[in-house]
Amino acid sequence: MSASQAQLIPTKLALRRTLKAQRRGRTSAERDAVDRAIAAVGLELPRLRRADCVAVYASLPEEPGTTLLRAGLRELGIRVLLPVVGDDPDDRQLDWAEDQGELASSGALNLLEPPGRRFGPAEIGKAQVILVPALAVDTTGTRLGRGGGYYDTALTQAHPRALVLALVHDQEILDADSTPIPCEAHDVRVQGVITPTRWMFFRSDRE
User: Fold this and answer.
1) How far apart are CA 13 and CA 31, in angstroms?
2) Are 94 and 153 in contact (CB under 8 A)?
3) How far is 176 from 21, CA to CA, in rounded Å?
4) Which residue from 83, 133, 85, 84 is spatially nearest to 108, judged by alpha carbons?
5) Rounded CA gap, 107 and 170, in Å?
6) Which secondary structure element, helix H or strand E, spans residue 173, and what is its range?
7) Sign of torsion, CA 38 16 114 206?
8) What is the per-residue pLDDT across 128-148, written as a single tens digit (0 to 9) for each?
9) pTM for the whole structure
10) Are 161 and 126 a contacting pair, CB within 8 Å?
11) Rounded Cα distance, 51 and 104, in Å
């Protein structure tokens, strides 16, 4: 690890602690409202509605919820892929499975995952839109994850034309001029975000 990389770690850790505390402070009613709003905004995004295949994730309780969004995508006839973590905690590759609505805790991280057939890491390459979790995103598209590295690894196998968006709360969009997220060589930038009030692109218009 270089000296510059070592300097980034405390900054990222501090950001994660602050953002996680803010998320934990939301009430159940506030979280339900965010879940409904995320679904309403996301399902109006033309690129999402036109997709044949979308990769998303089963949200944790404190994350902007994906349950209603995933259901809406399935109702549109879109194939929905969810990540599957293997049993080896040192393996940062994600497999994928089709979301049929039923989830069960499994894998090394004991996350909610769909039962049924598993596809390999390359399956994400079939998704025209990829929705990823994030604690925050700055206006250059630098994403702050939880530090596991799963999505940075997975996104290296995304289709070059796939639209990659993070799901965040409005206040988790950070101005890169004043509050940049430290970016390391392995970090994969997103092209925009979906929040409870809007979608926003950081690069060219990808609508």
Assistant:
1) 24
2) yes
3) 21
4) 85
5) 31
6) strand 173-174
7) positive
8) 999 999 999 999 999 998 877
9) 0.90
10) no
11) 26
Q: How far apart are CA 46 and CA 198, in angstroms?
A: 13
Q: Which residue has the tokens 């994969």?
A: 188
Of all helices (H) and strands (E), which one includes residue 113? strand 111-113
Instruction: Determine the pLDDT at residue 136.
Output: 96
Q: Does 64 score more than 50 pLDDT?
A: yes
CB atoms within 10 A of CB 172: 20
* Residue in the structure block whose two tokens are 């089709």: 98
Rounded CA separation 67/162 (Å): 22
Cα separation, 45 vs 47, in Å, equals 6
Q: Does residue 124 surpass a pLDDT of 90?
A: yes
- Alpha carbons within 13 angstroms on the beta-carbon side of residue 106 total 15
pLDDT bucket at 26, cuts 50 / 70 / 90 = very high
Residue 59, token pair as written in the block: 């949200």
d(CA 6, CA 99): 38
What is the per-residue pLDDT for 203? 66
Burial class from Cβ neighbours inside 10 Å (0-12, 13-18, 19+) for residue 55 reads buried
CA-CA-CA-CA dihedral for 26, 27, 28, 30, to nearest 10: -70
Give the confidence band of 10 by pLDDT, cuts at 50, 70, 90: low
The answer to whether the beta carbons of residues 114 and 100 sit under 8 Å apart is yes
